[in-house]
Amino acid sequence: MVIKSAYLHIPFCRRRCFYCDFPITVLGDKGGDSYSNWQKEYVDFICQEIEITSGYQKYSLDTVFFGGGTPSLLAIEGLKQIFEVLNKYLGINKNAEISLEIDPATFDLSKLKSYQKLGINRVSLGVQSFQNNLLEKCGRTHCQQNIYESVEWIHQAGFNNWSLDLISGLPHQTFEDWLDSLDKAIELEPKHLSCYDLVLEPTTVFGKKYHAGDNPLPPDDVTAQMYKVASEKLRQAGYSHYEISNYAQDGYQSIHNQVYWHNQPYYGFGMGAASYYNNQRFTRPRTRKEYFAWLENLKQHQGKLDVPHLSKTDQLLETLMLGLRLKEGVNLEFIGDKFGENIQADILKCLSNFLKNNLVKYDHQTHRLCLNDPEGFLYSNTVLSTLFSELKLD
Q: Is the domain of 257 the same as that of 316?
């Protein structure tokens, strides 16, 4: 089994953003300035999990991704300890892509240089919006000035490979606001951009306060236009729309995230993190207390998990669901080799209406099936729900 990627969940945040449904630990507005006991305890546990899991490893890692939460709130000492354990038990290849999510106003130039010394060579800046009023309404702790200060430090530190995140469809966000954020992001020239549409998760502040399609949320036709104009403007600016929500200059697509979209195995470590290997997909508990208890149980069973294996139907549907997020789509010849040659005809029959309406396209020479950009991407949920309801192997 070849596992070449690892995701590490760093849950610390100063406070919870109003759209956020991720497993986090709130440190307070001044949190992250020192290596607290909370941080030390969590780092110790995540390092124990890496050691216990390492029995599966046969190859060094090609990608490492620190997500959150706000990983830039973790003290350098904590990151250093995690790196030492990763190298000891899993190994990190010399040319590995090592990414860290960072938020404006949670780091400075000195901290960025410390990241580089550890081996981090890619950072993802959580901007979300360039409008101060929208940032405040989202519960963010930074402002526009912090964004520009952060980008200047990124350049001074010499990070060539860096990404920037934006969110569309925010409460009170106008189409003009979105255009302005896109223009400002393009001016900063990140190598990679992620543009996410707001999702109203029921447990979040926004999910409890707002209903889809109602004011002050932008109506559906406006959010659709936001998506289309982002694709158009970013492609004109030299970015490839290589995945539903992601854009990159040539050579700067996220290597780590492509592991997910190609449905390849990967490790996950920490609260709420997901893993996929041995044809098993599982997610850890989302709270610190439950995660620590889960890890103690894992230690007692010497790293062995009682997790069901995915059925053939689940494997097929996950391969389609993840692969169709990519501009290149999926190779039906490869899928036929793995799941049976008749499945190719079944998939094309299932999607016949989408093919007729040019939302999905299929190349008979390359055997590539993909969603059209941007219209097909907008209907991706409908396409996938059709596949999930009609395809069965077991």
A: no
On the CB side of 29, CA atoms within 13 Å amount to 4
Largest CA distance in the chain: 59
In a domain? residue 131: yes
CB atoms < 10 A from the CB of 362, how many?
A: 16
Share of the chain above pLDDT 70, in %: 98
Picking from 241, 261, 281, the residue at the C-terminal end of a domain is 261
Same-domain status, 125 and 235: yes
Structural domain of residue 207, as residue ranges? 5-261
**Whole-angstrom distance, CA of residue 97 vs CA of residue 92:** 9
Cβ atoms < 10 Å from Cβ of 69:
23
* Selection from 275, 383, 386, 265 nearest residue 325 by Cα: 383
Query: How far is Cα 234 from Cα 192, in angstroms, rounded to an integer?
Result: 10
The reply to whether 193 and 327 lie within a common domain is no
Query: Picking from 53-62, 82-91, 106-115, 301-310, which range would have the lowest pLDDT averaged per residue?
Result: 53-62
CA distance 292 to 223: 40
Last residue of a domain, one of 261, 277, 304: 261
pTM for this prediction: 0.97
Q: Is 365 exposed, middle or buried (0-12, 13-18, 19+ CB in 10 A)?
A: exposed
Distance CA 147, CA 126 (A): 9
Q: Taking the C-alpha atoms of 364, 256, 154 and 126 in order, what is their torsion angle to the nearest 10 degrees?
A: 90
pLDDT per residue as tens digits for the range 29-62: 766 668 889 899 999 999 999 999 987 666 799 9
Strand ranges for 205-279 from DSSP E = 240-243, 246-248, 267-269, 274-277
Say if 241 falls within a structural domain. Answer: yes
The torsion of the CA quartet 357, 333, 330, 268, rounded to 10 degrees, works out to 150
Q: Report yes or no: 329 and 322 within 8 Å, Cβ to Cβ.
A: no
Please state which of the ranges 223-237, 303-317, 350-364 shows the lowest mean pLDDT.
Answer: 303-317
Is the residue at 299 inside a domain? no
- Are 30 and 134 in a shared domain? yes
Q: Which two tokens stand for residue 202?
A: 């029921």
Tell me the Cα Rg of the chain: 21
Reference 332, options 344, 322, 321; nearest CA is 344
